[in-house]
Each structure stands twice: as C-alpha cells, then as structure tokens.
Design brief:
Blueprint: E1 2-8, H1 19-23, E2 36-39, H2 42-52, H3 57-61, E3 64-70, E4 76-77, H4 93-105, E5 110-114, E6 122-126, E7 137-138, E8 142-144
Parallel strand pairs: 4-5
Antiparallel strand pairs: 1-3, 2-6, 3-7, 3-8, 5-6
C-alpha cells in the first residue's frame, strides 16, 4: 500500500525520523514519542496540513514535497476499535495513550487510524523505531504545491 507524507522541502531528509511529531505531538502520540503521520492519499495528507494550519498564508511561501511510502500490507495494524472520543476536538489524552501503547507494543510498525478531518478515510502512523520499519520503501520527494484557492485568507 502506498501512503503519503507531505512536508516542507527543508525537512525531506528527516521526514520519516518521527522527530517532528515527538517535538509537536499530534492526536495519536504524546510528547517525546517518535511517529510519522501519513495519509492514504496525497489529497488527505494535504487536507490534514490545511486543517491543522492556522495561517494558511504561510503555506503560500513554503516549498513542500510529497513523499510516498510503500508499506507491505502485513506490516499494518488495523484495529477495529478506538477510544470513544477518538474524534474529539481538541484531541484527548485517550487517543494519545492509544497511539503510545501501539508504539510501545512493538507488534506492528504501522497503525491505521481514522481521519478526523475526512470521515471514512485513514491516516497511517509509522513507527520509525520498529525493527521492521526498514521494510517500508520510502520513495523520492516530489514537489508539491497547494492550490492558491485553498490557502487564500
């Protein structure tokens, strides 16, 4: 399965290190926990950035890249249940604890979670410290530009 990571071009070489999320925790991880957030499509990955950026104008000046990751299906955990408040705004401690437990369990290098911003689609959390992480094929960064209509303020 191909998933996508979009980031600023200057971070392309470290986009799959998990350091960004460890320093700026998201819905599914606590501070200090390395994880890489990806979308199941370029469109979802872009939308997640748009949904979490307060100043859309800043996206106009930045240079972005989209990086594909090819994940063998057997490396993906697909839980059937999530915390009851998985989609709460802002994210709750229960979702962070859920993601942290996954990272610490070491059972799979990838966790599929529902997208809060686009219902019915999924985000993928990659654990860069997992021994099988090396089996994920990280592709070459491709230039990515947000359509100006999406970032007008």
């Amino acid at each position: 399965m191909i998933v996508w990571r979009i980031c600023k071009r200057k971070w392309a070489t470290s986009a799959f290190s998990g350091l960004g999320a460890a320093e700026n925790p998201g819905r599914w991880n606590s501070e200090g926990k390395k994880v890489v957030y990806c979308g199941e499509t370029r469109a979802l990955a872009a939308w997640e950035i748009l949904a979490h950026t307060t100043s859309k104008r800043s996206l106009r000046r930045a240079r972005f890249v989209a990086i594909p990751a090819d994940i063998p299906d057997e490396l993906i955990a697909r839980p059937s249940r999530f915390p009851a408040d998985w989609d709460a705004q802002p994210a709750t401690d229960s979702t962070k604890a859920f993601g942290d437990r996954f990272l610490l369990s070491g059972t799979f290098p990838v966790l599929r979670v529902p997208s809060v911003t686009v219902r019915g689609e999924f985000c993928f959390l990659l654990n860069p410290t997992h021994p099988e992480f090396a089996e994920i094929g990280i592709g070459r960064p491709e230039p990515f530009v947000f359509d100006g209509r999406a970032i007008e303020e």
